[in-house]
Amino acid sequence: MKTENINRSFCKEERLCSTKSIDRLFASGVSFVAYPLRVVFYLENEPDEGKRFAKILVSVSKKKFKRAVKRNRVKRLIKEAYRLNKSKYSEVLRQNERRMDIAFLYLKGELPDYAEIEKAIQKAAFVLNEKLKDKEDDGK
């Protein structure tokens, strides 16, 4: 059985680093909650030059986790769940030739397990796809 060649890496081009983009994301982005994550996204009309359709930012509050070890653990879990499920995010974007900036903000005050984070990432992908389809229908 031949498997598809799916790029499941999470490289630098997929990380949201630009201060200008981050400011725009939080100033005019749309948000919703897929507990324990708050998801903020900003949809652009043109694709990225590097053919990356989504750029993400992961944030965990220092107020909820004083120790950097715990904050980094939660960030690693979120990034890994996104990496394994990113095809769900990019399929609609790829069809419409759009690009999106996404921020995942962790809300809960205790350490999660991977299953909880993956469920939240999948729910966020479903909600984002529904919102994109609604915007696509409004545009037609």
Q: Any descriptors?
A:
Ribosomal Protein S5, domain 2, alpha+beta, 140 residues, 3 helices
Structure description:
With 140 residues, the protein is an alpha+beta fold. It has one domain: Ribosomal Protein S5, domain 2 (2-Layer Sandwich). Helices cover 46% and strands 20% of the residues. It is built from 3 helices and 4 strands. It has a 4-stranded mixed β-sheet, sandwiched between helices. Strand 3 (54-60), helix 2 (68-96) and strand 4 (99-106) form a beta-alpha-beta unit. Helix 2 (68-96) runs parallel beside helix 3. It is globular and about 45 Å long.
Brief rundown of the structure:
The protein has three helices and four strands. The protein has about 140 residues and is an alpha+beta fold. Strands 1-2-4-3 form a four-stranded mixed β-sheet, sandwiched between helices.
